Amino acid sequence: GAGVSQSPSNKVTEKGKDVELRCDPISGHTALYWYRQSLGQGLEFLIYFQGNSAPDKSGLPSDRFSAERTGGSVSTLTIQRTQQEDSAVYLCASSKPSRHEQFFGPGTRLTVL
Amino acid sequence: AQRVTQPEKLLSVFKGAPVELKCNYSYSGSPELFWYVQYSRQRLQLLLRHISRESIKGFTADLNKGETSFHLKKPFAQEEDSAMYYCALSGPNFNKFYFGSGTKLNVKP
């Protein structure tokens, strides 16, 4: 079956612009995670959804970052007023309820000029 | 503070040699530990998890709570093992994960 998909695969934007990143999880996966991977760094946890609810938003790096999930499926990560330090690969992962294994998407590479 | 440390950025071994990728963690509670792998041009995928006590592709990892370590081992490395390996930690609710910075394993012929 289809895996986790993310769009766009690449996004180049100018400093100060807003961007929206999309994640389509595997059907039936109620848990959804967003991560950020900067060059040479590990994965930085951003936010977790169980269904449409995100109980802990403390991983979001600033108030310019927000995320939502609708219908227990698609999620969008929005970055407002992008800065150069936001340049990174943004990864999405999903998993079944009460399961440990995360299935990752291919990522969106964001470049802020 | 919760943290996962992988001290080696790059590990090069010859085919057939033993390999050990180090992972140390800091966590206030009972963590769940995982190893994820990313082969060239592929997605990040789960390799193994400590709770399953399994061996995948010849790899094993033992959780040592006294040393707060979860090192990944394989007795005889193969060229196809060349990849990026990430150690990860979660709390019991799996609502937050901490990843190490990764170790690139290069298995030479």
Major sheet description of chain A: 6 strands, mixed
Which term fits the overall shape of chain A?
A: globular
Radius of gyration of chain A: 13 Å
Largest interface: A-B, 25 and 22 residues
Helix content of chain A: under 10%
CATH homologous superfamily designation of chain B: Immunoglobulins
| Number of separate strands of chain B | 11
If you average the pLDDT of chain A, what whole number results? Answer: 92
Report the uncertain regions of chain A.
Answer: none
Ends apart, CA distance between termini of chain B: 41 Å
Number of beta-strand segments of chain A: 10
N-to-C series of helices and strands of chain A = EEEEEEEEEE
Order of helices and strands of chain B: EEEEEEEEEEE
Highest-level CATH class of the domain at 23-99 in chain A: Mainly Beta
Count helical runs of chain A: 0
CATH topology tier name of chain B: Immunoglobulin-like
Label the CATH architecture of the domain at 23-99 in chain A.
Sandwich
CATH top level label of chain B: Mainly Beta
Measured as a percent range, the helix fraction of chain B is under 10%
Oligomer: heterodimer
Overall description:
The complex is a heterodimer of chains A (113) and B (109). Chain A has no helices and ten strands. Chain A has strands at 5-7, 10-13, 19-24, 31-37, 43-50, 65-69, 75-79, 88-95, 103-104, 108-112. Chain A has a domain at 23-99: Immunoglobulin-like (Sandwich), CATH 2.60.40. Chain A starts with a strand and ends with a strand. Chain A is globular, with a radius of gyration of 13 Å. Chain A is 0% helix and 47% strand. In chain A, the strands form two sheets. In chain A, strands 2, 4, 5, 8, 9 and 10 form a six-stranded mixed β-sheet that branches. In chain A, strands 1-3-7-6 form a four-stranded antiparallel β-sheet, with no helix packed on it. Chain A has 113 residues and is an all-beta fold. Chain B has 109 residues and is mainly beta. Chain B has a single domain, classed as Sandwich (Immunoglobulin-like). In chain B, 0% of the residues lie in helices and 44% in strands. Chain B contains no helices and eleven strands. Chain B has strands at residues 3-5, 10-14, 19-21, 24-26, 32-38, 45-49, 60-61, 72-74, 83-90, 97-99, 103-108. In chain B, strands 2, 5, 6, 9, 10 and 11 form a six-stranded mixed β-sheet that branches. Chain B has a three-stranded antiparallel β-sheet with strand order 3-8-7, with no helix packed on it. Chain B is globular, with a radius of gyration of 13 Å. The mean pLDDT of chain B is 92. The interface between A and B is medium-sized, with 25 and 22 residues.
